Amino acid sequence: MIVLGVESSCDETGLALYDTERGLLSHALYSQVAMHEEYGGVVPELASRDHIRRAIPLLTQTLEGAGKSLADIDAIAYTQGPGLAGALLVGSSVACSLGLALDRPVLGVHHLEGHLLSPLLASQPPAFPFIALLVSGGHTQLMRVDGVGQYTLLGETLDDAAGEAFDKSAKLLGLGYPGGPAISRLAEFGDPAAYKLPRPMLHTKDFNFSFSGLKTAVLTVVKNHEQQVVANICEQDKADIARGFVDAIVEVLTAKCVSALKHTGLKRLVIAGGVGANAQLRTSLNAAAARKKFKVFYPELEFCTDNGAMIAFAGAMRLMINPDAARRDYSFDVRPRWPLDDIKTV
């Protein structure tokens, strides 16, 4: 069975073909970062319009990359939510229109389920059950995963997501958008002893997170700096602040993951989402895994951000278990807000 995946939840348009016998055949992705950089963040209306422009050319590119035609598609999976409503509507309408034209069944997929299962696309995928840290610009959650569609929420952020804190703190340092990769790179040159920023909820007995206070701490440091103006802070000062921020957020994420593993007795940890590409987080988790004797799994770097491959794969996994999960009525709705633990089991 060959499944076409369509992802359009935010500012990346992704399409992919996944074969349940041969694996991922091809995928194509277009990022809108350059367009939104001018505004310092994602502009929903611009994102939706750009998805319209990119979807069909990316479909053509994906088919050509796999050496397939539209007739070879057996089913179509698309991101139904969560995400930006207008952006989701574009991907959903493209997927359902193709389904109608080709007389193929369509399946709405949860965006976070795609991220959650993306490490299974690796050459050495984890086995169920495992603990998963979903960490991105919009979400920070710890889940217990016992199988496809079998997810138990252990904890989540009470305010800013980790990726959101990265972007906002980077903006305070004048690093532009997207800030996550920029502040991570700058932190490599910082002095870890220069700024000891707070570790919110590090010692609580639950698995929840809070990062708005850490962002505020960065703001306070910047305002209290003798120069008072971000543009006049020397590069070394910026690097030191970035290092203090990154060290704080990485320590909290690592500690919560270790705590969740201990609580459940599991020995496998999966990291998914855009922040999963962060070099400092990977270094910290790998060191913890060596000390605590557990294994940590990451998606390939190209699958950390939003992409069509994870949607095609998640759709294929659900259809392999339940072929009737897809439908042919082609009416659709989107779910901009959709808790992961609220999706139906397979």
Count of helix runs: 10
First-last Cα distance: 18 Å
Order of helices and strands: EEEHHEHEHEEEHHHHEHEH
- Residue ranges: pLDDT <50 for 5 or more in a row? none
Number of separate strands:
10
As a whole number of angstroms, the C-alpha radius of gyration is 20 Å
Structural class: alpha/beta
Shape: globular
Oligomer: single chain
The biggest sheet amounts to: 5 strands, mixed
Helix content: 40-55%
Give the percentage of residues in beta strands: 15-25%
Mean pLDDT: 94
Strand order of the largest sheet: 3-2-1-4-5
Describe the structure.
With 346 residues, this protein is α/β, with parallel strands linked by helices. The chain has ten helices and ten strands. Helix 2 (44-66) packs parallel to helix 3, helix 5 (162-172) packs parallel to helix 7 (212-224) and helix 6 (179-187) packs across helix 8 (235-264). The chain is globular and about 60 Å long.
Give the helices and strands, then pairings.
Layout: E1 2-7, E2 12-19, E3 23-31, H1 33-37, H2 44-66, E4 75-81, H3 85-102, E5 106-110, H4 111-117, E6 130-135, E7 140-147, E8 150-156, H5 162-172, H6 179-187, H7 212-224, H8 235-264, E9 268-272, H9 279-292, E10 295-297, H10 308-321
Parallel strand pairs: 1-4, 4-5, 6-9, 9-10
Antiparallel strand pairs: 1-2, 2-3, 6-7, 7-8
Helix pairs in contact: 2-3, 4-10, 5-6, 5-7, 5-8, 6-8, 7-8, 8-9
Keywords:
globular; alpha/beta; 10 helices; 346 residues
Short structural summary:
The chain is an alpha/beta fold and 346 residues long. Helices cover 42% and strands 18% of the residues.
